[in-house]
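Notes, Module 5: Reading structure tokens.

Key idea: the token line is not a picture. It is a compressed description, and you learn to read it the same way you learned to read a sequence, by spotting repeated patterns. We will look at two proteins. The first is printed below with its tokens.
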Amino acid sequence: MKYFLLICAFISFSVIQAQDLRDHIPANASFVGSIDGSKLLESVTISELDDSKLGKEMLKAFSKKTEQELSSIEDIGINTKAITYFYFEQNDSLSYTVMLAPLKQSQFLEQVYKDKEIKQKGNYKYTKIDNSAYAAWDNNKMVFVLGNYNAAYFVDYDFSSIQAELAENAEVVEATEEEATVETVEATEEPTQEFTYDDLPYLYNYSLHLYASNYYYFSEDLKVAAQNNNPDILEQLQTQVDQLKDYVAEVDSISNPDPENLDSFISNRVYFLKQAVSNFKEQKDRDRALKLIEDATYSSKSFKIYESQYDYSPVTILDYYEEKKVLGSRWTEYALHHAMLPAPKSILSNKQYKAQFDSKAVINVWNDHFGNTMSQIYSGMYTAFKGYPKSVDEMMGGYGELSANLYLEGQQARISMDMGLSGDFADIYERMGDQKINSKFFKYLNEDKFLGYISYNVNIKNTLEEYPKLMTSTYGPLLEGKMQDEIAIGVDLFSLLLDEEAVAELIKGDAILAFTGINEKEITYTDYEYDEDYNYTAVEKTKKEKLPDFVFMASTKEIDLTNKLINYLVKKEMAVAENGYYKILHKERDLPLDLYFAIKNDIFFLSTSAQDMGDIVNDRYTAKLSGKHKKMIKQGNFSAFFNGKKFGKDFPLDTNLPNMEFVKYALENASDFYLKSSKIKNKKMHSELVMKVPANHKNTISYFLNFIEHAKD
């Protein structure tokens, strides 16, 4: 599977020429996505990818898997002028994800899957990767399908037909085995396919089942260590071996048919595990790994076998796990064959999809109705446990079409996202967001100083009026209509107890939190000193540390109430007046930072800096904020900014961090981030995340490749 994912990563560097693979995507697909390789290759060449650390590692892995030397991504047979698509679809019995990738030639895939049974169907070939995954390809494209049966479908399912078929197949296998002459219990033929966790049989003895399942994880960890030639992991694996021995020690009996199930699974895992051990470069590491395998491996001969007093016959255990697994696999294969053919009605006939698709985007992801999709996923999970409440559709029904795009624009990467809302939801959110940010905040922001900021802006009065309705429509369905009267009364009580207008005077609903730097602070802490008899005494000490500074601002107007609150804090010795502002007293020293607050120009200020607070209340603060930041803060209900360059300079490096060289590189090359939202328009929420890379990098792709180059192996 991991090699398939590597293939996908490189196939994504692709744009279609002749055939549009979207012809194969059904119009009713829930999620549809695309990766436009031509946009990626505008920023980086194939030779640059080949020479990068990422490219070299992947080519090395491909070469090892296919047993042929690959020197370039071009050798993989990818059509580097093509678009890769993926989509998600769900019917009553199966949920499946499909990837459609264009190819230049298919010989490489046949090498990748040479250990699998490859079948021919018409003009294409296909193979079963594991129980839930299939791949198919012809000369132009590859299709990969990952399926998962829906548990809800089997609630009243008649398993008699599939049970009879599996029983008949089992009899044929048993008869064939009886005819064979077997001199030894060990297999005379080498296994061709490794068992996965899906092949783990249910072993009725609980400790035995724990042993087999944990043996699987032990073998996977050892294989990864061998493939990466990482002998350091062997010491850690000894702990797993000891745990496996403990499970074995707790096994008191094995009831039939446990012995043969255990032996079949463990022997298969051992065979492939010993093959993997050869990847260790040093003989001593191979010997150590083989010793771990020997110590961890047990067969049914290790235990006393007799019939259990409990009846574990299939009559009493009716989970139909094997039947479901077989049916799910067949349905996934059926979906694969359908995906290889053009859809009777493709996604290109879907006006919603076509309207949002932007050919300038590197990646596009679209969902026709986010609320419905989440309800379908939730309903499948919910039904498996306790039955699906139909009203859950109402809970998610307010969210509609989702569209997201990734753009690579020279020195910046930008993600743009739109979320549609239903009529009622849109009206509620629009009223809650009907508020302007207080422009007085800008007098107390200096972009040369801050590491970043977060701004939030809602209409508190409208929010207090609308929020109970929102909670009722969102979470009420979870109660399956059983407490609708109680919920209605609760909403009315909430509105009755709160004076929305009075609260809105005290808390307007707009706020900014600005991080103004990382500065050295002297902090007080409690230490303990011990005498000769180990009696301890608490001692207050001080030390210097680099800690973040911030200033928080929020609009307020209710002067009478705020004055009463401040007087109360002073009276209770929770705050003390200092030069026009107040210092918060925290006797227990729970906070590592000193905190100061004040109210000025109808703004509540909270800060860690006495200097900044003094400058604010005495009108000495030097403000500097560009029109770009002002516009971003004003235009929506939420925005955020992170100054990577300043953060890289201010971050304290005198800490015991692992991989310090990479940390230094990351700080020196930290990028700026912008997150901004727009007010609801045409019943849509719009937001953007922008990353600006430092000027010393050619573009965003080069920036990411350079980070990978400096990452520790």
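Here is the second protein, with the sequence above and the tokens below, as before.
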Amino acid sequence: MKKFQVKKPDIKGSFHKLKNIKKEDVKVYWMARKERRERILEERRNSAFARKMRPVYQFMNRISLLLHALLACMINFAIEAISRHSAMEAWKYMTGTPLVFLYNAFMIFITFSVVYLVKRRMFVRIIISVLWLALGVANGYMLMKRVTPFNAQDFKVAKDGITLINNYFNGVELVGLAVGIGAVVIWVISMWRRGGQYNGKLRRLWALAGVGVWFVVYGIVSDLAVEKRVVSTYFGNIAFAYEDYGLPYCFMASVFNTGITEPNDYNEKTITEISGNREITKSETGRAKDELPNIIFIQLESYFDVAEAEFFTTSEDASPNLHAMYENYSSGYFKVPSIGAGTANTEFEVLTGMNLRYFGPGEYPYKTVLKNQVSESAATALGALGYGTHALHNNGGNFYSRARVFNNVGFDSYTSKEFMNILQTTENGWAKDDILIQHIIEAMDTTKGQDFVFGISVQGHGDYPEEKMIENPKILVEGIADEGTKNKWEYYVNQVYEMDQFAGNLVKALEERGEPTVVVFYGDHLPTMGLKAEDLKGRYLYNTNYVIWDNIGLPKEDRNIPSYQIMADVLDRLDIHSGTVFNYHQQRRKTKNYLADLEILQYDLLYGEQYVYDGKPPITEGHMAMGVRDVTLKNVIPHLGEGYSLYGENFTKSSKVFVNGERQKSTFLNNTRIDLPETELGEEDEIVVVQMGSSNTVFRKSDAYLYQNGELTVEEGTGTDKKKSWVEQLDEEEKR
């Protein structure tokens, strides 16, 4: 048997050749490669197979438009089958709504028109096909992990999403994804090298004109499709929209259709009439200053009253505290803009009073207009009356660009996960909500007067596991036959129970505080459980629940209310009339053209000339500080071997230590101690502790401390300026 021998690589010889290579040698090498490539292509063109196929290729070129149409239909079917996780569902979609299917296929067909501009037509066809199929694969994979389809906004939160990647993907899936992407890239590169070229004469001007004509035709067809209601420009629920209108249309709508389109009758005269000669911009209240209560809004992640479900029962009441509040305080259904996802959009409607319906389909204003532009909100409205304004969230500060958005809508402070020592998490890794109570109280303690607090919970977040993860659940679910589905609901119901305990504990803490206070609890959307209208007593998927607790004797007034009206409604009950949009709701809610005029007003405020302010906008720049507590250092103790222990106050897992501007390897032990195992300190070294968010965002810096004779000396006033916007300070530092 012949032995297999492996030739030893001549590394030394190769290095010697590389070291002595000349410019002329490189030119000769690449010329030889080019000649060899041309020779191979010529041999292929003149081969027997090529001669036999030449008439076939010529015929295919003549009917290429028809073949593109067929390819577009095949790709459209493939991406829908992948997205729906079923070829049968894709077939039902195609045969059940053929006009929608053909409209989406026509969109794909249009993209193939660019191949006539180049010689490497086959390669360009492959690239276009891969991009469309990649879109389908991304959407299908996303829908395995969450209820929201893949859309343009995912690109805008990609950096923030990386920090949560372990909540959605395991190691095997990540490796498979990387291998798959690598394989596709290698294949595409090989097709660039091996793919043939068009041998006919290129008529680029005619081809370019043809591309233009096809896009004009597409515009006409799109207008007809909207007019005949084949597709819609409004997505009440983006997941349902993808099912009804197809992935290509919905994804492209999320890319190009953002913001509010300028209304036809938008002008200064119209705004003056809508605003009652700008009367709605006033800030006033019928209450004396010392009678104004604290106002707290708590957005409960994925919360709804599970007693509303008709297909299962629970072993005991999952929401005893909130149910008691429903009985004694104002409550009702809470209409939200989305189902199963869209937390930031419910926030947007509550905080601004604006209706999301007028924005682009699937748009998150947090990631578009509010990320870089200031706007009125409940924070500015109540801040104008002397309230301290605080936002809190037990998740990452950068997610959905909240840190920048909250600065741009006028909050004084934002306490995110980076400023919390979270010790308790759910079995899925989300922070439990009880941590919010101490930080709400701390935020209120920073001001002498009344406070507005906007708290966002995260405990109820999906994905909800099909396997049993809670060993001894407090609440048992009965009436669901499928074990996996039962486990999902049992996990969710027990999170609801703990969220209810958080609500009860918060009310107790506020009662002990003894200040006049109003608290609004509400759910941001239904959980990602595939619920149908017939599963719920209310028979409506856009409803969650709300309740307004108070200790000032507000009369109980139960009614159902949409999220964009809740702030105006609560302020009206308190005889507070502040904030342009909130005043508009209070004055115009039951009048003619209420919604049409609201759209015009929203356009003026966010995209127009701001005629309503008459040159005097209530907010021109943010001033928000991240967190409400400074990190302070007390001393630093050397280890017996290498490294130090740093002692101080208000450390968290997000505290990062810098010595002379260089980040140190550190181990967080508790809120008073961080170990620096590899640090070497010298005389006059400068130590700074930074509260750092995702993407290495500096949220807040401690004062600098000098290491002198084994002691720490503070350089006061060198940390983050709490009277100045953290965003402004970050931008200034990045420019240096």
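Summary for the second protein:
- Residues 483-513 form the longest helix (31 residues).
- Residues 211 and 489 are 52 Å apart (CA to CA).
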